[in-house]
Protein backbone atom coordinates (compact mmCIF):
# COMPACT_ATOMS: atom_id res chain seq x y z
CA UNK A 1 0.00 0.00 0.00
CA UNK A 2 2.96 2.31 0.60
CA UNK A 3 3.84 2.16 -3.09
CA UNK A 4 0.25 2.98 -4.00
CA UNK A 5 0.01 6.00 -1.72
CA UNK A 6 3.44 7.26 -2.77
CA UNK A 7 2.49 7.18 -6.45
CA UNK A 8 -0.91 8.75 -5.83
CA UNK A 9 0.57 11.47 -3.60
CA UNK A 10 3.15 12.23 -6.26
CA UNK A 11 0.46 12.68 -8.90
CA UNK A 12 -1.78 14.77 -6.63
CA UNK A 13 1.13 17.11 -5.91
CA UNK A 14 1.18 17.98 -9.62
CA UNK A 15 -1.36 20.85 -10.01
CA UNK A 16 -2.55 19.64 -13.41
CA UNK A 17 -5.40 22.13 -13.79
CA UNK A 18 -6.94 22.04 -17.25
CA UNK A 19 -5.09 24.33 -19.64
CA UNK A 20 -2.08 24.79 -17.36
CA UNK A 21 1.50 23.73 -18.24
CA UNK A 22 1.18 21.02 -15.57
CA UNK A 23 -1.63 19.36 -17.54
CA UNK A 24 0.98 18.69 -20.22
CA UNK A 25 3.79 18.04 -17.75
CA UNK A 26 2.03 15.24 -15.90
CA UNK A 27 1.74 13.33 -19.17
CA UNK A 28 5.53 13.30 -19.54
CA UNK A 29 5.83 12.09 -15.94
CA UNK A 30 3.38 9.27 -16.56
CA UNK A 31 5.09 8.33 -19.82
CA UNK A 32 8.37 7.94 -17.90
CA UNK A 33 6.60 5.70 -15.36
CA UNK A 34 5.18 3.55 -18.15
CA UNK A 35 8.55 3.18 -19.88
CA UNK A 36 10.16 2.17 -16.60
CA UNK A 37 7.48 -0.53 -16.29
CA UNK A 38 8.29 -1.85 -19.76
CA UNK A 39 5.11 -0.75 -21.51
CA UNK A 40 4.97 0.31 -25.13
CA UNK A 41 4.42 4.07 -24.95
CA UNK A 42 2.75 6.45 -27.38
CA UNK A 43 3.15 10.07 -26.22
CA UNK A 44 2.13 12.66 -28.80
CA UNK A 45 1.21 16.30 -29.01
CA UNK A 46 -2.46 16.71 -29.82
CA UNK A 47 -2.97 18.67 -33.05
CA UNK A 48 -5.22 21.29 -31.47
CA UNK A 49 -6.04 23.39 -34.57
CA UNK A 50 -6.94 20.27 -36.52
CA UNK A 51 -9.03 18.67 -33.77
CA UNK A 52 -10.93 21.80 -32.74
CA UNK A 53 -11.89 22.48 -36.36
CA UNK A 54 -13.65 19.13 -36.76
CA UNK A 55 -17.49 19.26 -36.73
CA UNK A 56 -17.72 16.54 -34.06
CA UNK A 57 -15.23 18.17 -31.68
CA UNK A 58 -16.84 18.07 -28.21
CA UNK A 59 -15.84 21.56 -27.12
CA UNK A 60 -13.23 23.14 -24.87
CA UNK A 61 -13.72 25.77 -22.17
CA UNK A 62 -10.15 26.74 -21.24
CA UNK A 63 -7.44 28.00 -23.60
CA UNK A 64 -4.60 25.63 -24.37
CA UNK A 65 -1.37 26.26 -26.24
CA UNK A 66 -0.58 22.57 -26.24
CA UNK A 67 -1.81 19.27 -24.87
CA UNK A 68 -0.62 15.70 -25.06
CA UNK A 69 -2.09 12.27 -25.52
CA UNK A 70 -0.59 9.23 -23.83
CA UNK A 71 -1.23 5.50 -24.19
CA UNK A 72 0.73 2.72 -22.55
CA UNK A 73 0.28 -0.78 -23.93
CA UNK A 74 1.00 -4.06 -22.20
CA UNK A 75 1.22 -6.41 -25.19
CA UNK A 76 -0.70 -9.64 -24.85
CA UNK A 77 0.71 -13.03 -25.73
CA UNK A 78 -1.69 -13.21 -28.69
CA UNK A 79 -5.26 -14.13 -29.54
CA UNK A 80 -7.15 -12.44 -26.70
CA UNK A 81 -9.49 -9.47 -26.50
CA UNK A 82 -8.07 -6.06 -25.67
CA UNK A 83 -9.10 -3.86 -22.75
CA UNK A 84 -8.50 -0.15 -22.20
CA UNK A 85 -8.37 1.74 -18.93
CA UNK A 86 -9.08 5.41 -19.63
CA UNK A 87 -8.32 8.07 -17.03
CA UNK A 88 -8.10 11.85 -17.21
CA UNK A 89 -5.14 13.72 -15.74
CA UNK A 90 -6.66 17.22 -15.70
CA UNK A 91 -8.23 18.61 -12.54
CA UNK A 92 -10.42 21.61 -11.81
CA UNK A 93 -8.99 24.64 -9.95
CA UNK A 94 -8.98 24.47 -6.13
CA UNK A 95 -11.30 27.46 -5.67
CA UNK A 96 -11.20 29.37 -2.39
CA UNK A 97 -7.96 28.35 -0.69
CA UNK A 98 -9.34 29.41 2.68
CA UNK A 99 -11.89 26.60 2.42
CA UNK A 100 -9.12 23.99 2.44
CA UNK A 101 -7.62 22.61 5.64
CA UNK A 102 -4.17 22.66 4.07
CA UNK A 103 -2.45 22.85 0.68
CA UNK A 104 -4.91 21.70 -2.03
CA UNK A 105 -2.09 19.74 -3.64
CA UNK A 106 -0.61 18.24 -0.49
CA UNK A 107 -1.25 14.56 -1.25
CA UNK A 108 -1.48 14.18 2.53
CA UNK A 109 -2.46 10.79 3.94
CA UNK A 110 -4.54 10.70 7.10
CA UNK A 111 -5.71 7.23 8.03
CA UNK A 112 -7.61 5.83 5.04
CA UNK A 113 -7.88 9.21 3.30
CA UNK A 114 -5.51 10.74 0.78
CA UNK A 115 -6.24 14.44 0.32
CA UNK A 116 -5.78 16.88 -2.53
CA UNK A 117 -7.37 18.30 -5.64
CA UNK A 118 -7.76 15.44 -8.09
CA UNK A 119 -7.27 12.68 -5.52
CA UNK A 120 -10.86 11.58 -6.02
CA UNK A 121 -11.47 12.97 -9.52
CA UNK A 122 -9.69 10.99 -10.76
CA UNK A 123 -6.07 10.29 -9.92
CA UNK A 124 -7.10 7.62 -7.41
CA UNK A 125 -8.76 5.65 -10.19
CA UNK A 126 -5.84 6.30 -12.51
CA UNK A 127 -3.39 4.87 -9.98
CA UNK A 128 -5.64 1.83 -9.51
CA UNK A 129 -5.43 1.24 -13.26
CA UNK A 130 -1.67 1.85 -13.46
CA UNK A 131 -0.97 -0.65 -10.70
CA UNK A 132 -3.42 -3.16 -12.18
CA UNK A 133 -1.40 -3.09 -15.39
CA UNK A 134 1.77 -3.62 -13.39
CA UNK A 135 0.26 -6.69 -11.70
CA UNK A 136 -0.80 -8.11 -15.06
CA UNK A 137 2.83 -8.22 -16.20
CA UNK A 138 3.40 -11.20 -13.91
CA UNK A 139 0.87 -13.39 -15.68
CA UNK A 140 0.36 -11.66 -18.98
CA UNK A 141 -3.04 -12.25 -20.64
CA UNK A 142 -3.43 -13.06 -24.31
CA UNK A 143 -5.03 -9.74 -25.20
CA UNK A 144 -3.47 -6.29 -25.02
CA UNK A 145 -4.14 -4.10 -21.99
CA UNK A 146 -4.04 -0.37 -22.70
CA UNK A 147 -3.92 2.52 -20.28
CA UNK A 148 -4.88 5.85 -21.78
CA UNK A 149 -4.11 9.05 -19.89
CA UNK A 150 -6.15 11.89 -21.36
CA UNK A 151 -6.27 15.66 -20.91
CA UNK A 152 -9.22 18.01 -21.13
CA UNK A 153 -11.94 15.68 -19.84
CA UNK A 154 -13.24 18.24 -17.37
CA UNK A 155 -14.04 20.79 -20.09
CA UNK A 156 -15.29 18.69 -22.97
CA UNK A 157 -13.30 15.56 -23.76
CA UNK A 158 -10.36 16.80 -25.83
CA UNK A 159 -8.02 13.98 -24.80
CA UNK A 160 -10.31 11.04 -25.54
CA UNK A 161 -11.47 12.68 -28.75
CA UNK A 162 -7.82 13.00 -29.78
CA UNK A 163 -7.13 9.43 -28.69
CA UNK A 164 -9.86 8.11 -30.98
CA UNK A 165 -8.75 10.43 -33.76
CA UNK A 166 -5.26 8.91 -33.54
CA UNK A 167 -6.78 5.48 -34.10
CA UNK A 168 -6.58 3.90 -30.65
CA UNK A 169 -9.32 1.35 -30.00
CA UNK A 170 -10.00 -1.60 -27.70
CA UNK A 171 -12.60 -4.33 -27.43
CA UNK A 172 -13.87 -2.77 -24.18
CA UNK A 173 -13.02 0.03 -21.78
CA UNK A 174 -13.28 0.93 -18.10
CA UNK A 175 -13.10 4.54 -16.95
CA UNK A 176 -12.10 4.49 -13.26
CA UNK A 177 -13.98 7.69 -12.43
CA UNK A 178 -15.17 8.07 -8.82
CA UNK A 179 -18.27 5.88 -8.49
CA UNK A 180 -17.83 4.67 -4.91
CA UNK A 181 -17.09 1.23 -6.44
CA UNK A 182 -20.51 1.14 -8.07
CA UNK A 183 -20.77 0.08 -11.71
CA UNK A 184 -21.99 2.89 -13.95
CA UNK A 185 -23.00 1.94 -17.51
CA UNK A 186 -24.58 5.25 -18.52
CA UNK A 187 -24.12 9.00 -18.21
CA UNK A 188 -26.40 11.95 -18.63
CA UNK A 189 -25.12 14.69 -20.90
CA UNK A 190 -24.43 18.35 -20.21
CA UNK A 191 -24.40 21.29 -22.60
CA UNK A 192 -22.85 24.66 -21.79
CA UNK A 193 -24.94 27.69 -22.73
CA UNK A 194 -24.83 31.48 -22.54
CA UNK A 195 -27.81 33.85 -22.26
CA UNK A 196 -27.70 37.52 -23.19
CA UNK A 197 -30.49 39.57 -21.65
CA UNK A 198 -30.87 43.10 -23.08
CA UNK A 199 -31.85 46.22 -21.16
CA UNK A 200 -31.48 50.00 -21.49
CA UNK A 201 -28.94 51.96 -19.48
CA UNK A 202 -29.92 55.01 -17.43
CA UNK A 203 -28.78 56.83 -14.31
CA UNK A 204 -29.82 54.76 -11.31
CA UNK A 205 -31.53 57.78 -9.72
CA UNK A 206 -33.89 57.75 -12.70
CA UNK A 207 -34.10 53.99 -13.08
CA UNK A 208 -37.56 54.10 -14.64
CA UNK A 209 -36.00 55.82 -17.65
CA UNK A 210 -34.09 52.60 -18.32
CA UNK A 211 -34.76 48.88 -18.43
CA UNK A 212 -32.83 46.69 -15.99
CA UNK A 213 -31.40 43.60 -17.61
CA UNK A 214 -31.21 42.05 -14.12
CA UNK A 215 -34.93 42.50 -13.62
CA UNK A 216 -35.67 41.04 -17.05
CA UNK A 217 -33.53 37.99 -16.24
CA UNK A 218 -35.77 37.00 -13.34
CA UNK A 219 -38.70 35.58 -15.37
CA UNK A 220 -36.23 33.75 -17.58
CA UNK A 221 -34.57 32.14 -14.56
CA UNK A 222 -38.00 31.12 -13.25
CA UNK A 223 -38.81 29.54 -16.62
CA UNK A 224 -35.57 27.57 -16.54
CA UNK A 225 -36.34 26.19 -13.08
CA UNK A 226 -39.79 25.14 -14.34
CA UNK A 227 -38.19 23.48 -17.36
CA UNK A 228 -35.80 21.56 -15.09
CA UNK A 229 -38.68 20.30 -12.95
CA UNK A 230 -40.61 19.12 -16.01
CA UNK A 231 -37.61 17.27 -17.45
CA UNK A 232 -37.01 15.37 -14.21
CA UNK A 233 -40.53 14.07 -13.53
CA UNK A 234 -40.19 10.81 -15.50
CA UNK A 235 -36.64 9.53 -15.93
CA UNK A 236 -34.83 6.37 -16.98
CA UNK A 237 -34.71 3.78 -14.15
CA UNK A 238 -30.91 4.04 -14.05
CA UNK A 239 -31.26 7.69 -13.03
CA UNK A 240 -33.89 7.37 -10.30
CA UNK A 241 -31.38 7.42 -7.43
CA UNK A 242 -30.76 11.16 -8.06
CA UNK A 243 -33.13 13.89 -6.87
CA UNK A 244 -32.36 15.95 -10.01
CA UNK A 245 -30.66 13.67 -12.56
CA UNK A 246 -30.78 16.24 -15.36
CA UNK A 247 -29.83 19.43 -13.58
CA UNK A 248 -30.05 22.88 -15.12
CA UNK A 249 -27.96 25.48 -13.34
CA UNK A 250 -26.80 29.03 -13.92
CA UNK A 251 -23.14 29.14 -12.92
CA UNK A 252 -22.14 32.73 -13.66
CA UNK A 253 -24.05 36.01 -13.96
CA UNK A 254 -22.50 39.31 -15.04
CA UNK A 255 -24.47 42.55 -15.47
CA UNK A 256 -23.78 46.24 -15.82
CA UNK A 257 -20.56 48.21 -15.57
CA UNK A 258 -21.33 50.85 -12.91
CA UNK A 259 -23.06 50.69 -9.54
CA UNK A 260 -25.11 53.84 -10.19
CA UNK A 261 -26.35 52.79 -13.62
CA UNK A 262 -29.25 50.68 -14.77
CA UNK A 263 -27.57 47.57 -16.26
CA UNK A 264 -28.11 47.44 -20.01
CA UNK A 265 -27.04 43.82 -20.50
CA UNK A 266 -26.84 40.67 -18.41
CA UNK A 267 -24.82 37.64 -19.44
CA UNK A 268 -25.55 34.34 -17.70
CA UNK A 269 -23.76 31.07 -18.34
CA UNK A 270 -24.82 27.62 -17.22
CA UNK A 271 -25.02 23.89 -17.82
CA UNK A 272 -28.04 22.01 -19.12
CA UNK A 273 -28.47 18.32 -18.30
CA UNK A 274 -29.26 16.10 -21.28
CA UNK A 275 -31.40 13.01 -20.71
CA UNK A 276 -30.39 9.48 -21.63
CA UNK A 277 -31.46 8.88 -25.21
CA UNK A 278 -31.91 12.58 -25.95
CA UNK A 279 -30.04 14.26 -28.78
CA UNK A 280 -28.24 17.58 -28.46
CA UNK A 281 -30.70 19.08 -30.93
CA UNK A 282 -33.71 18.00 -28.85
CA UNK A 283 -32.17 19.36 -25.64
CA UNK A 284 -31.21 22.68 -27.19
CA UNK A 285 -34.68 23.08 -28.68
CA UNK A 286 -36.28 22.51 -25.25
CA UNK A 287 -34.21 25.22 -23.56
CA UNK A 288 -34.63 27.67 -26.42
CA UNK A 289 -38.39 27.12 -26.37
CA UNK A 290 -38.55 27.80 -22.61
CA UNK A 291 -36.56 31.00 -23.00
CA UNK A 292 -38.72 32.04 -25.95
CA UNK A 293 -41.93 31.44 -24.00
CA UNK A 294 -40.66 33.56 -21.09
CA UNK A 295 -39.76 36.35 -23.50
CA UNK A 296 -43.14 36.24 -25.20
CA UNK A 297 -44.85 36.81 -21.85
CA UNK A 298 -42.92 40.02 -21.15
CA UNK A 299 -43.62 43.12 -23.31
CA UNK A 300 -39.98 44.28 -23.29
CA UNK A 301 -38.46 40.86 -23.94
CA UNK A 302 -41.04 40.14 -26.62
CA UNK A 303 -39.54 43.05 -28.57
CA UNK A 304 -35.96 42.47 -27.38
CA UNK A 305 -35.64 38.71 -26.87
CA UNK A 306 -32.94 36.95 -24.90
CA UNK A 307 -30.38 35.24 -27.12
CA UNK A 308 -29.08 31.72 -26.44
CA UNK A 309 -25.58 30.65 -27.40
CA UNK A 310 -24.14 27.14 -27.14
CA UNK A 311 -20.44 27.10 -26.38
CA UNK A 312 -17.77 25.25 -24.41
CA UNK A 313 -18.11 21.61 -23.40
CA UNK A 314 -20.84 19.69 -25.15
CA UNK A 315 -21.26 16.37 -23.33
CA UNK A 316 -23.84 14.12 -24.94
CA UNK A 317 -25.45 11.35 -22.90
CA UNK A 318 -23.98 7.89 -23.32
CA UNK A 319 -24.81 4.28 -22.52
CA UNK A 320 -22.73 1.12 -22.63
CA UNK A 321 -23.86 -0.72 -25.78
CA UNK A 322 -22.97 -4.19 -24.44
CA UNK A 323 -24.78 -5.37 -21.27
CA UNK A 324 -22.51 -8.44 -21.20
CA UNK A 325 -19.53 -6.21 -20.50
CA UNK A 326 -21.39 -4.49 -17.68
CA UNK A 327 -22.05 -7.95 -16.24
CA UNK A 328 -18.35 -8.81 -16.58
CA UNK A 329 -17.35 -5.72 -14.60
CA UNK A 330 -19.95 -6.54 -11.93
CA UNK A 331 -18.59 -10.08 -11.71
CA UNK A 332 -15.00 -8.91 -11.37
CA UNK A 333 -15.81 -6.87 -8.26
CA UNK A 334 -16.38 -10.05 -6.24
CA UNK A 335 -19.43 -8.48 -4.59
CA UNK A 336 -22.83 -7.22 -5.74
CA UNK A 337 -22.19 -3.54 -6.41
CA UNK A 338 -24.76 -0.86 -6.99
CA UNK A 339 -25.52 -0.01 -10.61
CA UNK A 340 -26.74 3.42 -11.67
CA UNK A 341 -26.47 6.09 -14.31
CA UNK A 342 -24.36 9.15 -13.56
CA UNK A 343 -25.97 12.61 -13.72
CA UNK A 344 -22.85 14.20 -15.17
CA UNK A 345 -21.10 13.94 -18.52
CA UNK A 346 -17.91 11.95 -19.05
CA UNK A 347 -15.81 10.43 -21.79
CA UNK A 348 -17.99 7.32 -21.67
CA UNK A 349 -20.18 8.84 -24.38
CA UNK A 350 -17.21 9.31 -26.76
CA UNK A 351 -15.94 5.76 -26.30
CA UNK A 352 -19.38 4.14 -26.45
CA UNK A 353 -20.16 6.33 -29.46
CA UNK A 354 -17.11 4.84 -31.16
CA UNK A 355 -18.58 1.36 -30.61
CA UNK A 356 -16.41 0.48 -27.60
CA UNK A 357 -18.34 -1.10 -24.70
CA UNK A 358 -17.54 1.19 -21.77
CA UNK A 359 -18.47 1.46 -18.11
CA UNK A 360 -17.31 3.59 -15.22
CA UNK A 361 -16.03 1.96 -12.05
CA UNK A 362 -13.64 3.53 -9.59
CA UNK A 363 -12.79 4.71 -6.09
CA UNK A 364 -14.12 7.80 -4.35
CA UNK A 365 -17.45 9.60 -4.20
CA UNK A 366 -18.54 12.12 -6.80
CA UNK A 367 -19.79 14.31 -3.93
CA UNK A 368 -16.13 14.89 -2.99
CA UNK A 369 -15.02 15.82 -6.50
CA UNK A 370 -14.50 19.55 -7.17
CA UNK A 371 -14.99 20.24 -3.43
CA UNK A 372 -12.64 21.64 -0.76
CA UNK A 373 -10.68 18.99 1.15
CA UNK A 374 -11.23 16.52 -1.68
CA UNK A 375 -10.00 13.06 -0.78
CA UNK A 376 -10.14 9.45 -1.89
CA UNK A 377 -10.33 6.44 0.46
CA UNK A 378 -7.09 4.49 0.00
CA UNK A 379 -8.94 1.23 0.69
CA UNK A 380 -11.20 1.90 -2.30
CA UNK A 381 -8.19 2.50 -4.54
CA UNK A 382 -6.83 -0.87 -3.39
CA UNK A 383 -10.18 -2.55 -4.07
CA UNK A 384 -10.44 -0.93 -7.52
CA UNK A 385 -6.95 -2.11 -8.43
CA UNK A 386 -7.89 -5.69 -7.54
CA UNK A 387 -11.13 -5.53 -9.54
CA UNK A 388 -9.43 -4.05 -12.62
CA UNK A 389 -6.74 -6.73 -12.43
CA UNK A 390 -9.31 -9.53 -12.25
CA UNK A 391 -11.39 -8.01 -15.04
CA UNK A 392 -8.43 -7.69 -17.40
CA UNK A 393 -7.22 -11.20 -16.63
CA UNK A 394 -10.65 -12.63 -17.48
CA UNK A 395 -11.56 -10.35 -20.39
CA UNK A 396 -8.20 -10.56 -22.15
CA UNK A 397 -7.58 -14.27 -21.49
Descriptive key words:
single chain, alpha/beta, Aminopeptidase, Alpha-Beta Plaits, 2 domains, 6-stranded mixed sheet, 4-stranded antiparallel sheet, 34% helix, elongated, zinc, succinyl-diaminopimelate desuccinylase activity, Bact_exopeptidase_dim_dom, hydrolase
Task: Give a short summary of the structure.
With about 400 residues, the protein is α/β, with parallel strands linked by helices. The protein is built from eleven helices and 16 strands.
Please identify the structural class as seen in this structure: alpha/beta
**The CATH fourth-level homologous superfamily of the largest domain:** Zn peptidases
Instruction: Note the main sheet.
Output: 6 strands, mixed
Order of helices and strands: HHEHEEEEHEHEEEHEEHHEEHEHEEH
Spatial separation of the terminal alpha carbons = 27 Å
Spans of at least 5 consecutive residues whose pLDDT stays below 50 are none
Strand line-up in the sheet with most strands: 1-2-6-3-7-15
Number of strands: 16
What's the CATH class of the largest domain, please?
Alpha Beta
Q: CATH architecture of the largest domain, please?
A: 3-Layer(aba) Sandwich
Q: What is the overall number of helices?
A: 11
Number of domains: 2
Q: The CATH topology of the largest domain is what?
A: Aminopeptidase
Strand content: 15-25%
Given the C-alpha coordinates, what overall shape results? elongated
> What is the CA-based Rg, rounded?
23 Å
Helix content: 25-40%
State mean pLDDT (0 to 100 scale).
Answer: 97
GO molecular function: metal ion binding; succinyl-diaminopimelate desuccinylase activity
Enzyme class: hydrolase
Domain Peptidase M20 dimerisation: 187-297
Keywords: Cobalt, Hydrolase, Metal-binding, Zinc
